[in-house]
């Protein structure tokens, strides 16, 4: 079996590694002319790290990242509202939750590939079904014949738009800034993810290496008035804790990435004959639960297991049955969390904060139990 993967992101690379280890040949086609380390971090939650344990990458990732044993939602003052202790899951699954530079993770995955070639400067423009499979046409003028295709090309997937037209992207009306900075966090924050909620905005930060902090900030905007100005960031978060203000101030403005937040409205069809969608192409989610890449990594594991057991279409069907309910659960829950975090009414904010404070830890643990549990294949 030969499989062509469109996209060399975290999902595409992990899938190629998993398939290689099953003896399945792959090629990757990536639109970028070169793979550069993006200025952002990533949190590999317990479910993702369980997959990397199976692929023989856990130890290397742990050595290059920073362990996170607690996820906290706080007020703008960093006073805790909700705390999820991750040590229970660390012990249960024998894997830690790791915060790491996205570029570092990407290079680890590339180095793990043995036979798979990554074809750069190959931006897919169309995929057409023909008698021999599929014709892949690229912006550079190249045309390739393929028998089996995996669309790992993200939220704006060309594979999905060509072959799965009944889908829509939802805009959350939120702007997200992401950055990495040299900053010495107080000791108590060094093995935690903290996300501070205010009024129509929030700020999260986590250490990814010694004195290196990844942070993200989100702010709501009205449909016709978008807040994009990096230079106003300090003003937007002027009422927040001094640690947050220090993180913003220490970051070089030219290294801050700005993007609108969107997701893919849940769709129930992820495959068609010998073409299948994975990761954001199938179930792009808002980043409110830190599960976007983690769900793509789970896709890689489940799909590789299915392809090693069944013929292609049957494998895609089984993969969809196993992964769709959980992925949709994450998309829906993340969308809801994003709306809750950006409330503007003071009364509703007070009720939300009280609800977070009063939610028993057992409830939080049960919710995360479902997210961290891998599918049984």
UniProtKB/TrEMBL annotation:
For this protein, the record's InterPro entries field holds: FAD-bd, FAD-dep_Monooxygenase_BioMet, FAD/NAD-bd_sf
Superkingdom of source: Bacteria
Q: Which residues form the FAD-binding domain?
A: 5-333
Q: Which UniProt keywords apply?
A: Monooxygenase, Oxidoreductase
- Provide a Gene Ontology MF annotation, just one: monooxygenase activity
Identify the Pfam families for this entry: FAD_binding_3 (PF01494)
Q: What is this protein called?
A: FAD-dependent monooxygenase
Which organism does this sequence originate in? Aquimarina addita
